[in-house]
């Protein structure tokens, strides 16, 4: 008699897997991990450009899911994973020297907020970020993007643009101050609106 073939992880309903995980099923947890590992890793790597850091973030997220399986209710797993990856990426970046403290306020966003609220907050935040970036003087904007979005050193930027390293550092300082003050105010208002709604 032929043995019944086990269903592929991708075909198993998330809510069923989560229910079994809540009951302590390591098999269901492994299936959930297998189903979403590659997607989660790709999302983290896309933001961090570092394979080890991306793996650590995904591992940490799934570890917390297992440890909090009986108390943390997850209704939409892809949406939950998206938010968890984004927040953990921010935490990881905030520990790096080239990332700036105006993102620390993100730690104060309560986890109880609905994912719809969180997604709306981030959409508005990054829309405001891009608008502020566009408002910077052209050369200052280029320098900022090269440093913090392409992760080039001030020395490389100075050589690339044919200006002194001191000029690069001065322009970065002015750009950071503009963004820090403006984005912190925008984000604070958004958080107040969410937490009091």
From TrEMBL:
Keyword Methyltransferase: no
UniProt cross-references to InterPro entries, sorted A to Z: RNA_pol_sigma-70-like, RNA_pol_sigma-70_dom, RNA_pol_sigma70_r2, RNA_pol_sigma70_r4_t2, RNA_pol_sigma_r2, RNA_pol_sigma_r3/r4-like, WH-like_DNA-bd_sf
Name of the featured protein: Sigma-70 family RNA polymerase sigma factor
Keyword Transcription regulation: yes
Ranges of residues in domain RNA polymerase sigma factor 70 region 4 type: 129-178
Coiled coil location: none
One MF term in the entry's GO annotations: DNA binding
UniProt KW keywords: Sigma factor, Transcription, Transcription regulation
Organism: Ginsengibacter hankyongi
Family, as annotated: Belongs to the sigma-70 factor family. ECF subfamily.
SUPFAM superfamilies per the UniProt record, alphabetical: Sigma2 domain of RNA polymerase sigma factors, Sigma3 and sigma4 domains of RNA polymerase sigma factors
GO biological process per UniProt: DNA-templated transcription initiation
Domain RNA polymerase sigma-70 region: 32-97
